């Protein structure tokens, strides 16, 4: 047999188990592309693409109740790099902000000792990226600096706060869900706590709706739903509802819709309400029929108006909002009554819900919004992905759903003729803009399960046993579950390996009234999973098995019972060798001796094999013996072992209740009693024994350890004062005399040569979990099973197991640029964005003239290799244009700010270039005339709010007012609708509403006069000037809204916008400009707004840039990007503008980008950009060539010739 060595390289890690109920809300999917999940007091970081755990963070002492990734909506550079920052909060009120890559804590925050209810990072990111808002029970909100841990302010409210939601369109709006209702805060800022107590809104429970009380089947569906809605109208009130109306306590969740401004969603177990906050009125309901499965959670999408809902059976459904534009051919006016209808478009399979398996939460990928992860209470994470399939239209037309359209563009621009694309890149590439009817057939969606992370609690295989009789086999090198075997019918008590691929395990049932149990001892073969009862028919109604011990050569097995003599078995043949006599002493601890006569065994085996081989070979074949002797020996080996039961002599020692040590020898089926050693007076009852080489260690129930040196015949007792010694184990490896000792309250590692303690672990002091079992997994690492269902591999020092993410070996490579050093991540991005120095795009960084350490190059190349083939082929496709590339790379990096910038830039660059082709002279800074908008590219989504085209924005606002009008239920609502209609210029509808005011209403007279005024307004000079005078007086006296209305009546909306801006109502002014003004006037208003956003006290330059993009002020955008030192974005943007021919060159930006590339080490790129910068880049070019000339003098002339030819 050829000796071979195994070097098992094991990383310290934690394998987690089932999830605690308090961990239920603790899961988050970040823009960084990773999922963070709380499991007891640890936090798992999961990569959803390869479904593997890549980091476990351990520092909390209590259960983790919330985790939140920081947002990525800021410009990334070397000074503000891509970093993995995570905030986590636990049930003892501690918040930790982590640097996930290194596994260390940035800072720890503690205010009260109660569980944190909710927390989130602030998203208005031009100010500071470190601010974290948290709800400390019962009723405080506190703003923290997440980098330093300092408290900025604290504010208390009257009711208990359950959760909160930021308005994704306006950073000063915040809604708190309290135990009694909702509190709206409109003056939220990082500088000071909100001044007012907020506006309280009470919501009566919608349980009175007929969807629950009447059987709906009797009535046709639409009327049932309508009745339900009419009931829902009266839900939202500003007064506290009477006692009998059930209040908000069964509202599960509140969140703003990221797809439409001023809309909010409330989730109840049986319905989802969509509120329009301008009216505080329900405009849509998604209700479940009586037989349906209730909701647990809902996640609204931003890219399309769609909802992902999680139901109690673990089913995830996708509901997409039906287009509101009613088709003209509907004759029945009742049918065109609108409400927001969310059609069910897709659902995934449910899971089998049991007592221990319940769905907890879903999270949706924020970058693409087309994958979901479901956390199940048994610790599994199921990863689902949404796929679209196109079908023939005819089949679907009768289903009553409005059709969905597939988009015609990819990454913001129309597809080229032969261009490759990724079909299901993200939600908005799967569902097109509804207004744009495309020739392609509508898509059908389905969920596909993409990965399953099954984490459950316990060679490089480690075994863990569970209460339900299953045994889990882990591969410790990868940390993945290898197999789950269901072996026993009751709790597993112990496991012993009997070969490299098989083990014995035993379980005992609960005792009957005689104290007897059913013992199960099973032999399990790991590769096949076959198991059989090792003791045959034995096992019913007998005393419980206390322990099983297999000898070192895996020949014999000792089974020790509670009140009955032990049994000795032969493991290889499965036969009972001896059952000890009745007078045999009671065993308290037992251990096999490691010193066995292995040499004599080998000699015997070899002789037997040769004899067997001789019998097999006849004399005629004698000549060819030499060649085939090895194979013959192998054949003979198995026969010989069985025919002559060859066995080596082995010994074991055990102690009885008095502490006397017995020594027994076993050979074949002969058992000899050896020496007896009298008890040591200092020791109590012996609980366990360990033996290695010449050292024997005894541990007793009082916490004393006794070290025996068998060669020198010395013994030495050490009291540890830690109570009962549960288990002692020697470390594997020749000459390794380390010893692991387990107590009820922790564990210690001892060095038996020096007889001193090496390290210690105490429950309560170092760790919060209790240790159930412990063992060595390599010569320097220990593995322990704890009561929180986790298996931990620790270094010998037994310190916590957070590790550096970039140092560990993963089974599958993970695409996550955030793991690279800041400089390397920026280089990788530059490499993917543009490679103009070569004709073909390469994915091999080694082919580029890139000056960097090989180690870092290797890491970047690993990242490139881990990209999927689809993405690689799209990136290498020559048809992919610059805008598409920028958008795709920002998606890959999960860079929120890049994505927003390039989406808006791509849209407006194309529409302005298109207008130019039609020879419509468009002065810079004015949106193009409406006629020029028939691009094949459609409009920006409404989730971009004021950045959309005016015509589309206007249409959306009209539809919305129409919806509000249908839903209004009180005079307040009617008045608001009339005001909106006047601002939108819909005077006839407004007059009708004003005339509805009833005579007993105090404002009856006022409204009637207003109606008369609106209808009789003429454009004669005097009446105009009077109204204007009245309006300005009103505004001066604090009646801003009324004054603005009057100005809009006489078509002086531009003045109205100016007044609004003067009084600080910037958003309102932008809204009005979009819906009422002609392009030139509207452009002036928005430019003033952009200037205001750039001012130092507002400091929202990134927003200002988006506003300027929507106006087509491309030159100004280029200059601003350059002045904000966003060199790569500036250079690529200017390059794209040059391609579309909508602006001139800004040379300085190109030069700066070339400098940035040079500092990164990408020399070819630097030369290229510097040469394109015209005059501005000459100086830098000279520097570059000097540097190059110093390295290699001869190549200089060729370089310059090449350069001239490129220029």
From TrEMBL:
InterPro entries: Beta-prop_WDR11_1st (IPR057852), Beta-prop_WDR11_2nd (IPR057853), TPR_WDR11 (IPR057854), WD40/YVTN_repeat-like_dom_sf (IPR015943), WD40_repeat_dom_sf (IPR036322), WD40_rpt (IPR001680), WDR11 (IPR039694). It comes from the Eukaryota. Residues 466-798 form the WDR11 second beta-propeller domain. Residues 22-317 form the WDR11 first beta-propeller domain. Pfam families: Beta-prop_WDR11_1st (PF23751), Beta-prop_WDR11_2nd (PF23752), TPR_WDR11 (PF23753). One of its GO terms (cellular component) is cytoplasm. This is WD repeat-containing protein 11. Residues 959-1138 form the WDR11 TPR domain.
């Amino acid at each position: 047999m050829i000796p071979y060595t195994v070097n098992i390289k094991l990383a310290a890690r934690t394998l987690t188990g089932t999830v605690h109920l308090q961990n239920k809300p603790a899961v988050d999917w970040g823009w960084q592309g990773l999922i963070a999940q709380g499991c007891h007091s640890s936090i798992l970081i999961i990569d959803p693409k390869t479904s593997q755990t890549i980091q476990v963070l351990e520092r909390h002492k209590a259960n983790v109740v919330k985790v939140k990734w920081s947002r990525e909506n800021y410009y990334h550079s070397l000074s503000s790099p891509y970093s993995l920052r995570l905030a986590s909060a636990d049930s003892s009120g501690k918040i930790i902000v982590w640097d996930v890559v290194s596994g260390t804590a940035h800072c720890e925050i503690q205010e009260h000792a109660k569980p944190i209810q909710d927390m989130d990072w602030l998203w208005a990111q031009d100010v500071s990226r470190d601010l974290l808002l948290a709800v400390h029970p019962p009723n405080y909100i506190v703003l923290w600096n997440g980098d330093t841990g300092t408290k900025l302010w604290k504010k208390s409210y009257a009711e208990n706060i359950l959760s909160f939601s930021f308005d994704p369109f306006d950073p000063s709006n915040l809604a708190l869900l309290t135990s009694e209702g909702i509190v709206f805060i409109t003056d939220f800022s990082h500088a000071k706590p909100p001044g007012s107590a907020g506006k309280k809104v009470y919501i009566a429970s919608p349980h009175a709706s007929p969807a629950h009380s009447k059987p709906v089947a009797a009535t046709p569906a639409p009327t049932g739903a309508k009745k339900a809605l009419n009931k829902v109208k009266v839900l939202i009130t500003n007064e506290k509802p009477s006692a009998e109306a059930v209040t908000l306590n069964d509202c599960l969740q509140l969140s703003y819709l990221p797809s439409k401004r001023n809309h909010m969603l409330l989730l109840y177990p049986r319905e989802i309400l969509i509120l329009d906050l301008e009216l505080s009125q329900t405009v849509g309901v998604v209700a479940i029929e009586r037989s349906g499965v209730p909701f647990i959670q809902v996640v609204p999408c931003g890219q399309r108006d769609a909802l992902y809902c999680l139901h109690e059976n673990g089913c995830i459904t996708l509901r997409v909002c039906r287009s509101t534009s009613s088709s003209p051919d509907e004759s029945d006016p009742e049918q065109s009554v609108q409400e927001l209808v969310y059609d069910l478009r897709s659902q995934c399979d449910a899971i089998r819900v049991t007592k221990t398996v319940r769905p907890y939460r879903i999270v949706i990928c924020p970058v693409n919004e087309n994958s979901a992860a479901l956390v199940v209470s048994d610790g599994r994470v199921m990863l689902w992905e949404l796929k679209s399939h196109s079908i023939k239209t005819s089949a679907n037309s009768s289903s009553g759903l409005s059709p969905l359209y597939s988009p015609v563009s990819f990454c913001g621009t129309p597809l080229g003729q032969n261009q490759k694309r990724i079909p299901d890149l993200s939600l908005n590439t799967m569902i097109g803009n509804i207004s744009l009817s495309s020739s392609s057939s509508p898509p059908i969606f389905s969920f596909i399960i993409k990965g399953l992370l099954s984490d459950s609690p316990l060679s490089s295989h480690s075994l863990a046993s569970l209460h339900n009789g299953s045994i889990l086999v882990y591969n410790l090198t990868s940390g993945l579950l290898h197999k789950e075997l269901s072996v026993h019918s009751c709790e597993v008590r112990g496991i012993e390996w009997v070969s490299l691929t098989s083990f014995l395990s035993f379980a005992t049932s609960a005792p009957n009234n005689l104290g007897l149990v059913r013992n199960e001892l099973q032999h399990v073969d790991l590769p096949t999973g076959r198991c059989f009862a090792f003791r045959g028919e034995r096992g019913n109604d007998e005393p419980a098995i206390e322990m099983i011990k297999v000898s070192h050569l895996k020949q014999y097995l000792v089974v020790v019972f509670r009140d009955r003599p032990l049994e000795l078995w032969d493991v290889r043949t499965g036969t009972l060798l001896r059952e000890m006599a009745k007078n045999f002493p009671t065993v308290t601890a037992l251990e096999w001796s490691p010193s066995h006569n292995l040499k004599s065994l080998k000699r015997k085996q070899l002789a037997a094999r040769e004899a067997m081989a001789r019998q097999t070979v006849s004399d005629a074949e004698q000549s060819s013996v030499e060649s085939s002797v090895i194979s013959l020996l192998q054949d003979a080996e198995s026969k010989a072992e069985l025919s002559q039961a060859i066995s080596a002599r082995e010994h074991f020692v055990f102690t009885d209740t008095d502490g006397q040590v017995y020594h027994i020898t076993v050979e074949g089926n002969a058992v000899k009693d050896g020496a007896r050693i009298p008890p040591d007076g200092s020791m109590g009852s012996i609980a366990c024994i360990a033996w290695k080489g010449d050292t024997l260690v005894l541990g007793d129930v009082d916490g004393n350890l006794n070290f025996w040196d068998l060669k020198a015949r010395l013994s030495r007792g050490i009291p540890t004062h830690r109570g009962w010694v549960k288990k002692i184990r020697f470390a594997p490896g020749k000459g390794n005399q380390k010893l692991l000792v387990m107590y009820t309250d922790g564990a210690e590692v001892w060095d038996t040569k020096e007889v001193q303690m090496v390290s210690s672990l105490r429950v309560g002091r170092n760790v919060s979990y209790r240790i159930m079992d412990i063992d060595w997994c390599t010569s320097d690492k220990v593995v322990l099973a704890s009561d929180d269902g986790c298996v931990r591999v620790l270094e010998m020092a037994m310190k916590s197991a957070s590790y550096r993410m970039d140092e560990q070996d993963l089974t599958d490579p993970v695409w996550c640029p955030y793991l690279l050093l800041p400089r390397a991540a920026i280089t990788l991005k530059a490499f993917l964005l543009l490679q103009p120095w070569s004709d073909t795009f390469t994915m091999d960084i080694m082919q580029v003239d890139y000056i960097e350490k090989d180690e870092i190059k290797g890491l970047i190349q690993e990242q490139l290799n881990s990209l999927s083939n689809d993405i690689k082929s799209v990136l290498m496709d020559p048809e992919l244009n610059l805008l598409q590339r920028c958008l795709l790379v920002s998606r890959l990096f999960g860079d929120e700010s890049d994505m927003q910038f390039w989406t808006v830039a791509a849209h407006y660059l194309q529409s302005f270039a298109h207008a130019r082709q039609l020879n419509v002279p468009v002065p810079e800074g004015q949106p193009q005339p409406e006629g020029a908008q028939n691009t094949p590219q459609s409009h920006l989504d409404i989730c971009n709010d004021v950045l959309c085209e005016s015509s589309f924005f206007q249409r959306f606002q009209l539809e919305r007012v129409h919806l509000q009008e249908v839903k209004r239920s009180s005079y307040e609502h009617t008045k608001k609708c009339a005001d909106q209609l006047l601002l939108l210029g819909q005077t006839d509808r407004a007059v009708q509403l004003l005339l509805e005011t009833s005579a007993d209403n105090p404002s009856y007279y006022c409204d009637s006069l207003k109606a008369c005024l609106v209808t009789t307004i003429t454009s004669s000079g005097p009446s105009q000037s009077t109204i204007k005078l009245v309006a300005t007086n009103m505004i001066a006296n604090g009646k801003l809204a009324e004054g603005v209305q009057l100005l809009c009546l006489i078509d002086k909306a531009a003045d109205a916008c100016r007044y609004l801006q003067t009084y600080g109502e910037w958003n309102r002014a932008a809204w009005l400009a979009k819906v009422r003004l002609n392009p030139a006037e509207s452009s002036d208003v928005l430019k003033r707004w952009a200037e205001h956003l750039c001012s130092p006290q507002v400091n929202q330059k990134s927003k200002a840039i988006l506003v300027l993009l929507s106006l087509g002020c491309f030159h100004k955008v280029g200059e601003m990007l350059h002045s904000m030192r966003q060199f790569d974005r500036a250079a690529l943007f200017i390059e794209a503008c040059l391609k579309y021919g909508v602006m001139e060159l800004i040379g300085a930006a190109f030069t700066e980008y070339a400098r940035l590339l040079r500092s990164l080490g990408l020399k070819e790129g630097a030369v290229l950009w510097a040469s394109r910068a015209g005059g501005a880049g000459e100086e830098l070019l000279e520097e570059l060539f000097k540097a190059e000339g110093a390295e290699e003098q001869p190549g200089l002339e060729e370089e310059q010739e090449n350069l001239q030819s490129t220029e």
